[in-house]
Each structure stands twice: as C-alpha cells, then as structure tokens.
Amino acid sequence: MNSKEIEHLRQRMSKAVDNLSKEFASVRTGRASPALLDHVKVDYYGTTVPIKQLANVSQQDARTLLINVYDKNALQAVDKAIRLSDLGLTPQVDGMVLRIVIPTLTQERRKELVKVVKKMAEEARVAVRNIRRDELEILEKRAKNKEISEDDLKRFKNEFQKITDSYIQEIDKLLSNKEKEILND
C-alpha cells in the first residue's frame, strides 16, 4: 500500500481541521483574544488591509484588548473598522492606543454562539468527508485502469475511513471545548 496517498489525505484533512480551529478563535466568547480581530479589515488610504498591518493587538487582561496603532493617521480608521465590524465592540481611544473591554455575554447570546460553532464544525466534517470522497474517486479510477489491485483499493478504503473517523473525532473535540468555553466564561 502506498503511503503517499495516505499522507496526502492526512495533509488535506489536517488543513480542514486547522481552518476550523482558526474560525473558532475568531468567535467571540467572554474572553479577550487578539484573534478576535483577525478578520477585521481597515480602510487605510483607499486600501483594505488587515488590522495587524496597522497595529499591534495584545491582551491586557482576561477582558481587555490593547491595540497600539503604528501610525497616528490610522487611529481613526482602525477605530471605525472595529466599530463597524460584526463583533459589537466599542474601542476607547487613549492617545495612540485603542482599548477594548469585552463585555460579558448574555445567556441568549451564548446559545446563539453555540449554534454558530456547531454549524462551523458541521461544515468542517463535510469538508473532511468530501476530501475522503475525492481521494477515493482517484483511487477507484486507478483501480479501473489496473494501476492498483482491487485488494489494495479495499485496504485504502478501510484506511481512509479510519483516518476520516479520527479527524471527525478531532473536530468533535474542538467543538466540545469551544462550547464549554462559550457557556462557562
């Protein structure tokens, strides 16, 4: 059995899980995390740039983010971008620093966020299954062209299913941890 196909499958599935992990980091819980602002884009002199190119984002404490803007001309643009984002955050200007206090979440908002992360996890599961399907189609074509035997195809299918199950378990574990974080903060 060729481990090249298995390694390729693992790499693709790993990327799907890593992507989910990054998406989860951008979901606002009651904690301050610099990753919250990763998707915020700032209109800076007619160009849309990520906030990290214009400022250093750090965590002051469990509920406060500090944003040190490099260029004082960008301060208002960064402030505006955060206010207009879907995060519902209001920065306070303090000289060249923006301070964001993360409000505690209501129980209703926590339940909404749990639904959002469950949807993200389901999309990641579908992505992992689609990767398995795509890789199996390639192998089935190779078996049809007599490049690999039917026995090898069966072994690959079994191995691919085991790998898929392990990545689905990893997604479920990430989801469980994120749900606990959302509901208990």
UniProtKB/TrEMBL annotation:
Keywords: Cytoplasm, Protein biosynthesis. This is Ribosome-recycling factor. Residues 20-183 form the Ribosome recycling factor domain. Gene3D superfamilies: 3.30.1360.40, Ribosome-recycling factor (1.10.132.20). The gene is frr. The keyword Cytoplasm applies. One of its GO terms (biological process) is translational termination. GO terms for cellular component: cytoplasm. The keyword Protein biosynthesis applies. Responsible for the release of ribosomes from messenger RNA at the termination of protein biosynthesis. May increase the efficiency of translation by recycling ribosomes from one round of translation to another. NCBIfam families: frr. Pfam families: RRF (PF01765). GO terms for molecular function: ribosomal large subunit binding. It is found in: Cytoplasm. SUPFAM superfamilies: Ribosome recycling factor, RRF. InterPro entries: Ribosome_recyc_fac (IPR002661), Ribosome_recyc_fac_dom (IPR023584), RRF_sf (IPR036191). Belongs to the RRF family. HAMAP family: RRF. Transmembrane segments: none annotated.
